[in-house]
Amino acid sequence: MPGFNHLYIPGPTNVPDQVRMAMNVSMQDMRAPDFPAFTKPLFEKVAKVFRNTTGRVFLYPSSGTGAWEAAIQNTLSPGDKVLMSRFGQFSHLWADMAMRLGLDVELIDCDWGTGVPVEQYAERLNADVAHEIQAVFVTHNETATGVTSNVKAVREALDAAKHPALLMVDGVSAVGSIPFDQDAWRVDCAVSGSQKGFMLPAGLGMLSVSKWALDANKRAGYARTFFSFEDMIANNNNGYFPYTPATQLLHGLNTSVDMMLDEGLENIWARHHRLATGVRKAVAAWGLDLCAQEEKWYSDTVSAILVPEGFDARDVISTAYSKYNTSLGSGLSKVAGKVFRIGHLGWLNEGMVCTALSVAEMALIDTGIKIEAGSGVGAAITHFSQTAADATPKRAAA
Amino acid sequence: MPGFNHLYIPGPTNVPDQVRMAMNVSMQDMRAPDFPAFTKPLFEKVAKVFRNTTGRVFLYPSSGTGAWEAAIQNTLSPGDKVLMSRFGQFSHLWADMAMRLGLDVELIDCDWGTGVPVEQYAERLNADVAHEIQAVFVTHNETATGVTSNVKAVREALDAAKHPALLMVDGVSAVGSIPFDQDAWRVDCAVSGSQKGFMLPAGLGMLSVSKWALDANKRAGYARTFFSFEDMIANNNNGYFPYTPATQLLHGLNTSVDMMLDEGLENIWARHHRLATGVRKAVAAWGLDLCAQEEKWYSDTVSAILVPEGFDARDVISTAYSKYNTSLGSGLSKVAGKVFRIGHLGWLNEGMVCTALSVAEMALIDTGIKIEAGSGVGAAITHFSQTAADATPKRAAA
Amino acid sequence: MPGFNHLYIPGPTNVPDQVRMAMNVSMQDMRAPDFPAFTKPLFEKVAKVFRNTTGRVFLYPSSGTGAWEAAIQNTLSPGDKVLMSRFGQFSHLWADMAMRLGLDVELIDCDWGTGVPVEQYAERLNADVAHEIQAVFVTHNETATGVTSNVKAVREALDAAKHPALLMVDGVSAVGSIPFDQDAWRVDCAVSGSQKGFMLPAGLGMLSVSKWALDANKRAGYARTFFSFEDMIANNNNGYFPYTPATQLLHGLNTSVDMMLDEGLENIWARHHRLATGVRKAVAAWGLDLCAQEEKWYSDTVSAILVPEGFDARDVISTAYSKYNTSLGSGLSKVAGKVFRIGHLGWLNEGMVCTALSVAEMALIDTGIKIEAGSGVGAAITHFSQTAADATPKRAAA
Amino acid sequence: MPGFNHLYIPGPTNVPDQVRMAMNVSMQDMRAPDFPAFTKPLFEKVAKVFRNTTGRVFLYPSSGTGAWEAAIQNTLSPGDKVLMSRFGQFSHLWADMAMRLGLDVELIDCDWGTGVPVEQYAERLNADVAHEIQAVFVTHNETATGVTSNVKAVREALDAAKHPALLMVDGVSAVGSIPFDQDAWRVDCAVSGSQKGFMLPAGLGMLSVSKWALDANKRAGYARTFFSFEDMIANNNNGYFPYTPATQLLHGLNTSVDMMLDEGLENIWARHHRLATGVRKAVAAWGLDLCAQEEKWYSDTVSAILVPEGFDARDVISTAYSKYNTSLGSGLSKVAGKVFRIGHLGWLNEGMVCTALSVAEMALIDTGIKIEAGSGVGAAITHFSQTAADATPKRAAA
């Protein structure tokens, strides 16, 4: 189909030109003497994006799912009791993994459209005087429903209960896009992947761990090799890897974290909030509802939008794709057919949001859903115009 | 600035991924024995895009300006009388070149916002019973004002007058985007460049000539070497070039003409018309006027939009650029400050048009021009939704 | 340093331009309706490279190490007795993994420079009348020592003993380069990675399994999620993946397997044998020895070359790298300092081999090792000249 | 054919990865307000490569041939008397152009294999007391025969004669590779192209002019537009161009001149001399002769090698190409069939030279020319080993 494919799924996200250029490389020797001069600063920069100063970062050639598994295998033991909650496809999948890996999962099922039930977590933690719970799991941003949970509040609940459990956070669609502070919140294992806020192709699983997680690693009872911290640490300490790393992606990552630190994390977070607000104003203008049930759950990286009763959101998505060359996110599992999703994270600006909203309008109209053409985009335009920085200095054409 | 730069100037246009991939090549020997197996079919495919079966196509490492000069040097002689008209910056520049190269230019100045004055051309041709006029020049699409002229009517005027003058057409922002038929209209020299409908970076000047132009070449009195047809023909006939060709761009061109012929020229023209109509509906919804004075002049590749009295269009353009990372076309020369331009040609679809319109709305609002947010995009959305093909088969992910 | 880096390690190998171009892509939706039209033929083509018609192929975003783990987790159970042998760093690492994952490893230690001890394997299999051995492991090509083992003979030993154990083969530096026939040898799990014969960047772990391995999967007792066959199969059957696949690499893989099947596997094997023979003739001309102790062990993908007593092979390697911008393979573990390695696999031709040999000569001379300048390259040149195909038809410049 | 194509023609040369990455860009607005922040430093850096501080540099979307024409059109007038010499295909072509453009060419024909006849030039200049000669032309490096002329000596002859003629130098295969000093030698027009020492694809013609050339421009009588200094100056002074520039190549150029200035011009020259010496030692070891008749003519960027009587050099070249995927330079015009050429300029190191020499040996042997296999490469290896810098600090993997 003519024209660019417009990619507004919540990952993979759009890759900046600079990153794409950085990946257009010849291969190199991953055992070369100057390889550490490339990797060691890279590890440090990635840790800065997580705001992790106590521990370290692992970069696996894998996916976010792999990093989930790495977190469990390296800090827990089969049979360990853990506290989890489920309110969407990705929190479901992590819980499913935990159970399949033999953890004793205390699973709190919540409405899809809500997030981590901090009060219930607090209750359980307070009740667990024997400290049987070894880890508490949080899906920071549930990509399936567009819900952001309060990681900080979970940390506060742990601290209030003086509970030593590890805090495990799925930050795949959060880190590098919305506020995340591993140190301040003492997140022990923060999972992410390359294809979201890091603006890279899929292929890297990232795991940023605190020093407490590194301590736990020594007691962890899982058999492990590919994801083993020990092997990684022994090699990473010298700037190398226990097996051939995905150097092409590492070069892309090097550029993307430079760009992120150059823009500034707070600026990135503010940008995501402003752009996401535009999307939400559009949804309101259309007269539609978000899957996220309350404002406190609103995600600044993805919006899951409910279609009215009697319509199938899959028609919106397939129309956008087949008629307008635009990829919107589909509803997964329980919300299949009920929601379509707009990913608004990563390398994003006003014009890109308006593209997504415009195509969504066309697809909604074509599907027979009554909205006023231009209403949503117009609402976003008004918001963006009112909130634009007065003078955005342009960088020189690079 | 974060997010993609949105490029909606009337050239360079957006380069398709496939073309970009094709240009990511190592260098090669332009005298290799298998080089002609690449170039000969390429010449044929480019000629197809021009609909030229009587003559041949020249590919210069240059620009459209270079191809203008090539056309003059190779078919005319200093002092030759030629008929030209001026109604925008690019028709001005070609006339300026003709005068500086020593042609005896009979220049008809027209209102900017109109196009080639066919009736006046007809008059002069009819009056020129001695056939002193050696060539008639037509700027098919005046990129500065968004005006398309009627090449076919000029051919008819020539034929009605039984006048043997050559028909020289500047098709830089026309060929490959709007209807162009070199054979049917017997265009003798059709000039184009790589960075418009051909969807490539700038760097190639294209000149497609009829057999009558090749005949004229034998009599042409200009000294010439770099742009010489003779040198090109002697080498191109064997699949080679008289000097090192820009092989990287030729590889891109090979891919882009394949894409164009694959989509089909009529389909491309229809797509441009449909998308341009969306832009014009947006302009109307804003309550603004085009620089093109009548519908018959409307260009399907670029719209020059007048800002109301009391405003400076440069503010709209600089706002779009500095606040919204979007490149709109500026007003040139006489219309500087009066118009901003939206390029809508090349690798384009509905979502891309809506991007340009959305940013234009933000920039207009920020500049203080009263428009209703969403009105223009909404009008385009309605148009696109009403006119979308029912089932656009997707090509497999490539 | 000026000039290209010459990469002659046994992986990552040199990436063809065509593959590099294919990876220069924008991101795409891995849940799009036309994604299976891309992935399903891809799975089939990869299976053809393995010559696997009974089972299927898994493509993990990981590394060869990950595929090793996937093979074990999905077909065996903790405590299972397996037969392995160790004669180099990579056979060591796989055995180490097996032990750490809790298998009961019967490990035969062999001289480094030899390969899988087929006779001893046969003995153990014949002796194992109770069929306690669940799997037999073979490192097809030990990359550390440049030794190729006889997979077919192990299959014959299994068959002769009428032993039902699974045959697990590490084909990381073998598949796609030297003769490999999963069907004929009934290999149950064939492990490979993207960065060797597949001529891609690192980042994909490949596992090609027979139908017997798929049967074993149903009984396999390991907890697994990331590498789980079940999750992969459920999704791959529809052309999708259980988590975000590395689409950039999949596009590269699509191109590289097309190139491989286009060249023809037998032709690729013959090419590797001819080029490797040139390397071995050079080594002989230098008066040096291979680590591989007998001709039957010679690897056609990598040569590990012993330096004379009193010299440190690391000096050769660091000289090649720091003075001549060339990456040679280092000696690992037991053979560190004793060998340097030349990788000669993947996208390779005569000129590339001569590059590696020329630089090796400079580095040897600089290190003080007495060789005659030009002797090795000359021997290779003579071999290549004598064995070159008479008429290699060139493909058209693409 | 498998493996990299080995490109050892004297241009296009091999493009560094960094440059290739820099050209993998989206298009941009060449009238954007921040475009000058990119172009103005670029002009300055290019001028540094020419060592031009008195005048300025013009960057045309064209080729070296275009820059030849630009030099003539902008500084001379039809009928002007000029002094030229011819001793190879490229000095021939420039003279041919000068004559076709109507200059009164006093042409000294020299043996192919020699260079500019400085003594004869001096004679004519001394004899020209009326200063009728308006310009003296020098082909600095005759690419067809591998001959470098003495530009400095020509300047000295001009000065000794107190002759005001302009000094026009074709530096296409010289600038950026061998010593060139526009200021010191007061070269008035120095022509170059992107695809040689600048390590870029073809597509840019470069013309670096002195202030005396800029003065001459005011008197120049040629009609001109595309190559007009005036139009360029008016726009370049503000950082823009009179027509759409080839921004993709400009980005590549920006990177390549950074790399050149970073390596240091003297270091680049020394590197070329050292590598070229290796080639010449190989030629001597083969028992063959260069086309360049004396050492003083030896070119450090290209060697034209004579094949023995009774052989056709075209067989060597076609064998290298069709059997070994290697591009060697062919003999042009008078020396067709008599020489094959090895280009050794640009992004080059020892291993690359050895590649070219090794393939040349195979092709010579296959053609039936008696040389000892390994003799030439061995001689080069010995030279490189003896002259290698002790410690070449590696830059970090970038």
TrEMBL record, chains A, B, C, D:
Single Gene Ontology MF annotation: L-serine-pyruvate transaminase activity
Please indicate if the UniProt record lists Transferase as a keyword: yes
- UniProt cross-references to PROSITE patterns, sorted A to Z: AA_TRANSFER_CLASS_5
Where in the numbering of this chain does the Aminotransferase class V domain appear?
A: 44-287
- Which cofactor does the UniProt annotation name? pyridoxal 5'-phosphate
Q: Which Gene3D superfamilies match?
A: Aspartate Aminotransferase, domain 1 (3.90.1150.10), Type I PLP-dependent aspartate aminotransferase-like (Major domain) (3.40.640.10)
Keywords of the record, alphabetical order, are: Aminotransferase, Pyridoxal phosphate, Transferase
- Which residues does the record list as N6-(pyridoxal phosphate)lysine (modified residue)? 196
Q: Is Transmembrane helix there in the keyword field?
A: no
Q: Which family, according to the similarity comment?
A: Belongs to the class-V pyridoxal-phosphate-dependent aminotransferase family.
- PANTHER family on file: ALANINE--GLYOXYLATE AMINOTRANSFERASE 1, AMINOTRANSFERASE CLASS V
Q: What is this protein called?
A: Serine-glyoxylate aminotransferase apoenzyme
Q: What is the lineage of its organism?
A: Bacteria, Pseudomonadati, Pseudomonadota, Alphaproteobacteria, Rhodobacterales
